[in-house]
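Usage

Read records sequentially. Each one opens with the input sequence:
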Amino acid sequence: MKTDTPSQLQKIVEIFKDICGDKYVYTDKEVLQAYGSDQTLDFHFPFDILVKPASPEDISSILKVCNDYFLPITPRGGGSGVTGGALPVKGGVVLSLERLNKIIEIDNVGGYVIAESGVITADLCEYVEYHDLYFPVFPSSGAYSFIGGNVAENAGSINSCKYGTTSNYVLNLEVVLPSGEIIWTGANVLKNATGLNLTPLFIGSEGILGVITKVVFKLLPKPRHEITILVGFKTLEEACDAIIDIKKSTVFPSGVELICLNAIKLTSDYLEEDSPLVLRNLEAHLLISLHEVSMIETSYALEIMTSIIEKYTQEDILVAQTDAEKMKINKLRLNIGNALVSNGKNYRDVDVCVPLSILLQYIRKVESICKEHSVNLVCFGHALDGNLHTNLVFNHGGYSSDEITIKKILKEIYQYAISKGGVISGEHGIGMLQIDFMTLQFSPAHLALLQSIKRLFDPNRIMNPGKILN
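and closes with the structure output:
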């Protein structure tokens, strides 16, 4: 049955109110407005109904209704995505998970935490650290992103070069399928060879297969010592050589962030104050974080890092140990995002991940492509992962004013990265923004298999339509 009349829509609203309560179902356009956007450029999509369930059982009932009426439904977490994963591109229903916000259990012996998918990342991290444990994947949006969204996007973070991405910590998921059935995908144990493992299928699935309602995360011992290093290089080549040398070493930094000259200039101008190592003769910064469990290991790691860095630069190495010192040398890196949207600017984040061995060649290629098309470029990010954020920056008018040129640039960048063994997205996902480029990454047979998995779980194609797959 299709919802092609106001009376049918009102009937569905009343059913949803019976499920969730009157005050958790909304059709007022002013309320709906904020839920038609996320952090993806300036996109906004209208839709009909916002619903805020309180339990997996509520969600089960809602999905059954949507299936009966062939009504599109878009799960929404904290709205922190940058590829449109939470945008209701086909209208219909937005299902907000903000009421599923409880941390249910922490097991100090088993080393895991069970939490509902609407828990804010920062709250989860604070909670487990209070229990002397550690969850290491804290994306830049951690202050407001939901853990269910992090799982759905397989989010990464500055710490991913040591700790990996979200997928490395998911033991088990509670998921509501489009049919309304509620399943657990795995088990709360560290080893499980019991049949096909469904858990990885839902990690990074961006809500197209079902709604994640609970997450079981594996936890680590809390690191006892954390220090941060900032160093400048006269050339980008020297900085990239140092990165490769760090990769070959016996030390595993939690983060190695490369900040290219264009990002240094943009952000230092935005801050309008002196920042460490912002000098005319430096073309790149490396911001290195070390997390260790003992002072001995910390001293050893710092010694190795220093010996590597000194081979490639004569600049002073700034070492921060106190919170105030770390805040000072992290400030420029943490404000790049703010600088990118200052004074009416906007940007398209190219989230490519490439083999580390071609990181420098990749940067030079993107610089060449952008120069050819007269588009400004700002490069920074997770260098040791090969996941550098190469941002196409545009002023007033933005993405929609020259979408054809931008898509042409993106195609050239993606083709180059893929030809060198890279991928379209390292941590932001496909969403709606990158669907057109999936054919560059995958063969027709591969894409057909993805479509068949989608049909198996969601034959009526109600779940987050218009994402990942056409």
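Summary fields computed downstream for this record:
- The chain has 17 helices and 18 strands.
- The mean pLDDT is 95.
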